[in-house]
Specification:
single chain; mainly beta; Thrombin, subunit H; 2 domains; seven-stranded antiparallel sheet; six-stranded antiparallel sheet; elongated
Length: 250
């Protein structure tokens, strides 16, 4: 039986208005590699299609940021197919200051966490934040939730391709330097022959005449879209930075 959004009123009667919460966020018990991959950044070249958004919270004052256990309002309800118990990723786009979203300047998709629908009305819903990768913000958009499966790195010992390099792009929160275990994005995807588990070598061009590229480390593709991929660094000899070169082993 559906609980109406008037459940918020019941909460208000039982608790101080400034401290309304949904059910306590449960421990995930998920492996660390699954959690890390669920929170990893990806790239976006267009605005998201999702009309579902976080529109506010259940407090006596205006807030912009929310954390696990907080109740947030969603701009859709039963008329939009929202049901109690549904889970959604909470995401937003980040671009560098002054940059417009375009093929040459993609945005980074930040996964703020995920939530579960707790109460439903005809046109709005309440959801409780279950896990946070970052603070959930008003205006964040929602996408259906499913746990990622960490890929197994291929056992190839093939040499890295020369003269067909991708470049290290920004990471979460526009991060520009990366070490072992960190995630970064490249503008190559399944359309370019990249698949989950593909192995890469990371290089730096020091722009020295008649010298080799400097090998910084290795990475594996953990999430692949048609025109971009998220890589995780598996071996680090030195920090990789935005703009460094990435070559696939194949």
């Amino acid at each position: 039986m559906k609980r109406a959004v008037c459940a918020a009123a019941l909460l208000a009667a039982a608790m101080p208005a400034a401290a309304q919460h949904g059910p306590a966020a449960a421990v995930t018990h998920l492996p660390a590699d699954v959690l890390a991959l669920a929170c990893a950044p990806t790239a976006a070249y267009t605005e998201p299609d999702s009309p579902l958004r976080v529109t506010g919270g259940q407090d006596s004052f205006t807030r912009r940021n929310y954390q696990p256990g907080d109740l947030v309002t969603l701009n859709a309800g039963s008329r939009n197919g929202i049901e109690i118990g549904q889970q959604y990723y909470v995401r937003r786009l980040r671009t560098a200051d002054g940059e417009q979203l375009a093929p040459s300047t993609p945005a980074t998709i930040v996964t703020a966490g995920w939530l579960r629908v707790w109460a439903v009305d005809d046109t709005m819903s309440l959801a409780t934040i279950e896990h946070a990768c970052d603070a959930v913000e008003v205006g964040d958009y929602l996408e259906p939730f499913s746990l990622p499966v960490p890929p197994v790195a291929g056992a190839t010992t093939a040499k890295a391709e020369r003269d067909h390099y991708a470049r290290v792009m920004k990471g979460t929160d526009l991060r520009q330097t990366f070490g072992k275990g960190d995630f970064f994005i490249i503008a190559r995807g399944s359309n370019d022959g990249v698949s989950p588990g593909a192995q890469f070598v990371i290089y730096r061009d020091k722009h020295e005449r008649d010298n080799f590229l400097f090998e910084l480390g290795e990475a594996v593709a953990v999430d692949v879209k048609p025109t971009s991929a998220t890589l995780q660094i598996t071996k680090s000899l030195d920090a990789a930075s935005e703009g460094d070169l990435v070559a696939q082993r194949r």
